[in-house]
Amino acid sequence: MDIQATPMNSHTIIPLVAATAYLPLLALLYVNRPWQQKHKLLFLYLIGAALWSFGDIFFRSNLFMEDKVLLGKIILCILFWAGTQLHYFMKYIYSPVETTKKIPFAYIAMILSWAIIIAFLPESVSTVNGVTPSYGFWLIPPSASLVYFLCRDLVLLSRRYRQLTDPIKRSQILYIIIGAAIIVSFTLSSFSQFGREFPLAHIGNVLNASILTYTILKHRLLDLKFVLQQGLVWIISAALFVGFYLFIFFLLHLVANYNLDSTTLALTALAAITVAGIVFMLRQTFMKLSAKFSIRETYPERQALQDFIKRRIHGIFTLSDLGKELLGLLTKVLQAQRTFLLLSESASNDFVIRFAEPKGEGSQALRIKQDSPIVTWLNKENKYLSREDLDIRPEFLGLRKNEAEASRSLGIELFFPIISRDNLIGILALGRKNSGKYSMDDINITESTINQVAMSLEKQFLQEQLREQQKELSLINRLASVMTSSLNIQDVYDAFVTGLREMVSVDFAVIALREEQEICITAVPSKNNQIWELNQRIPLKNTAIEWLIKHKKTLVEPDLSHDSMFITGKQYLEKGLRSIVYLPLLVKNEPIGCLIVASNEADAYTPKQVSLLERLASQIATSVENSRLYSRAEQRSRIDELTHLFNRRHFDETIKQEIDRHTRYGNTLSVLFLDLDNFKNYNDRLGHLEGDKLLAMLGQLIKDIMRTVDIAFRYGGDEFAVIMPHTTADDAFAVAERIRGKIYSTMARKKINITASIGLATWPEDGITRDEMVTACDSALYYAKRTGANRTCIVSKMMPTFPTETTIIGNVEKETLNTIYALAATLEARDQYTYGHSKKVSNYAVALAEALGLPSEKVAIVSAAALLHDIGKIGILDDVLRKSGKLTKEDWDLIKSHPTLSRSIVAHIPSL
After folding, report:
1. β-sheet bridge partners, residue 590
2. Alpha carbon separation from 327 to 7, 11, 403, 414 (Å, rounded)
3. Beta-strand relationship, 669-677 and 590-599
4. pLDDT tens-digit series, residues 631-685
5. Which long-range contacts (CB under 8 A, 24 or more apart) does 155-164 make?
6. Taking Cα atoms as reference points, which of 491, 501, 560 lies closest to residue 526?
7. pLDDT band, residue 212 (cuts 50/70/90)
8. How far apart, in Å, are the Cα atoms of 751 and each of 61, 282, 682, 686, 698?
């Protein structure tokens, strides 16, 4: 091997620049501790690349002339080490798992390459006209293996690039591919004759160092603090400027044999600095022109976005306007299919979609909990989060299923944190791009926009919260005033629901109270209530109140069409209700019932709204309990102690209230009066104690038969009344007939000669005022009793009305009727074979009279006369009346005389 010393120091400039270019990279890596596996692999590569160029300085200089072959071996070993580390670094980028788990074949190949280098390479080093190594055949095997690994890495990195949607990762991989391709190409060229004479490989090393530096600073290959990053950008830019400046002079020296002296360097440096300063001052103009040309499709939208950020945002005073305009502009600039702005809820601190562009179905499905890994990561890292990160990062293995599914169904690709004063106040989510994938430019625009609007967004958000709190406080105070001013639960309910509709969606609301093992519907809507009726009772088991009694907390069913916990859920759904909130009414921490609020919309109630409902429910609970206690005390004064029905006083109050209520809301009200037939005779024969027992039994019987919405009263003596809200005449007649029929069958079974006559009137057809309704009911009742009793008469369907002076049953007339019924009962009791005969005759006679169209007073006379047509039997001896054998002539004469006796008895009754 021939070695001759010829100093060629100019050939060392390029390796020097290359070695120097890696120093900033090592500094950046140093400040990025603690290191991950990627950082360690990058560090090993950077050390190898820097040492390779640094060693080549000595190899190409006039130093160590006797040891050039040894230096060549060392440099080749370092080169293969750097190439192997580059392979593992790139492999970690596209397959981090395989990098740590598989057998390190590249390291094995490197060791074998070192063995070949130590044994055979380089064959010789010539120092004539520079330091020129000669490698020979043995360079091919180790070079081929290293080139195979690196080319394979480039192919796999290209595939990974096409698969990714994360703009930053795509940019990182793209520049790593470019840098690796350059270093491989220039290194291979160094094995040519020209490449062995001149340091071409180190030009590639300089370019690769520059690309890596740009990738780290611009595309975040390493995580750097902003201030440190900006400072290092200027330092590294200056260093690269100086390096390339010297490199250009070196090329001039080689090509044109240009002489280098201090004066030339100083003047040219001054000129270069001047030109650089001018270019720096004009950079904004150049950037605008470049942007206008390269992004001409979205340039007007970008200008509009900049105008919004710098000027128009200061004239926006509501969060709604700010959110809608911001998302609208961003969607156009980024060419996104959809964008979402998620803000924190004050009640739960969860992040929910407040604004969506364009607005569509499913926007409300995404709710990111405050303890979600997404929120934790965005708050900690303060940088965007991609779909790939959610799928592969271990931090997101605990991500809730509903959050992952919702974000996937909405097509969200990127999450951006909106941070103001070190607090995460919102999340910007980007859906898929209209075409292609998001670029680094899109990321920069988005982050720049967020940084500039974050403070304004927080300000509007806080102002909106303040306005809502003031509105809620005003509502609570107003409702508190109303609730403390009334002891009527329905009045409290009406005022409560009216105020509630100002804040939340309310399509149905009801107050239900627990009464032992039942639920009593205490307050219902006056209009459009087709679910529960006032005072309706429901078994407690398997209901929401049973659940609330056990858990003492609010329960929300967001969508009844998907799931319902209680037996009442199907009934609500059939009426069109989708979401429902059950709020316990707690008094001294004990549930007395619940407030039910429902909406026709699914997911209608946010946690914030539920929190407001809970506060209002706590307010109304005390009022409801006070109303109930007052109602119980007042009810005792309105209850008849004998029958446990409401008394006459309560009837007078209730009928007036119901007429007023039906006047306001427009519906039909029916009232019936019931009077017992032959009760006086029963009372006189058996005594008042037995009469009281019978009245108590009949009061319970009426209560059991009537509907839950109906209200029963003991009107006085043996008279009863029932008020039937929202009931037509036909429906009321059906109820009255059930009551009459039940009384008749019960009394017949007990062999008690008691029946009921019922008069029925309907508001407003039969009367407008309370007095008119009572008069109408009395008229119908009088007609029923005068036309045979044990029947129901509707005043509007009576025959021509009685004269005015007889429309109300007087005491004398009533006594007369009682006498008639007593005589008829006495007659029936004497002859068991003809029991019920007089009543049947009376019914047939009335039917015929009404069919003939006789006036009502005539019908009444026919009824009474028919009932008493056999009254003369009272003069027949019992032995003759009940004789089973053949009658004698005297017996027949006595029987034939009874019609004459009947006529004489009836003639003494004035009305007949």
Report:
1. 587
2. 66, 57, 22, 15
3. unpaired
4. 777 777 788 889 989 999 889 999 999 998 888 887 899 999 999 998 988 888 8
5. 156/91, 156/94, 156/95, 157/90, 157/93, 157/94, 159/94, 160/93, 160/94, 164/388, 164/437
6. 491
7. confident
8. 137, 117, 12, 14, 15
Q: Which of 592, 599, 569, 571 is nearest to 509 (CA)?
A: 599
The rounded distance, in Å, linking the Cα atoms of 86 and 74 is: 18
Q: Are 132 and 123 in contact (CB under 8 A)?
A: no
| Cβ atoms of residues 739 and 712 within 8 Å | no
- Cα–Cα distance for residue pair 301/309, rounded to 1 Å: 12
Token pair recorded at residue 234: 């200027």
Long-range contacts, 399-404 (Cβ 8 Å, 24+): 399/372, 399/373, 399/374, 400/369, 400/372, 402/367, 403/366, 403/367, 403/368, 403/369, 403/372, 403/374
Domains contained in the chain, CATH given: 9-258 (1.20.1070), 299-463 (3.30.450.40), 486-636 (3.30.450.40), 638-799 (3.30.70.270), 828-912 (1.10.3210.10)
Please report how many Cα atoms fall inside a 13 Å half-sphere around the Cα of residue 200, on the Cβ side: 16
Q: Which residues contact 337 (CB under 8 A, 6 or more apart)?
A: 411, 431, 432, 433, 434
Exposure string over 809-833, b if 16+ CB within 10 A, otherwise e: beeebeebbbebbbbbbebbeebee
Residue 301 CB contacts under 8 Å (≥ 6 apart), including other chains:
329, 332, 333
Per-residue pLDDT of 519-558, as tens digits, reads 888 887 766 656 778 888 888 888 888 898 888 899 999 8
Nearest partner of 850 among 859, 838, 840, 839, judged by Cα:
859
Q: What is the pTM of this model?
A: 0.50
CA–CA separation, 563 and 579 (whole Å): 10
> Average pLDDT for residues 398-410, to the nearest whole number?
87
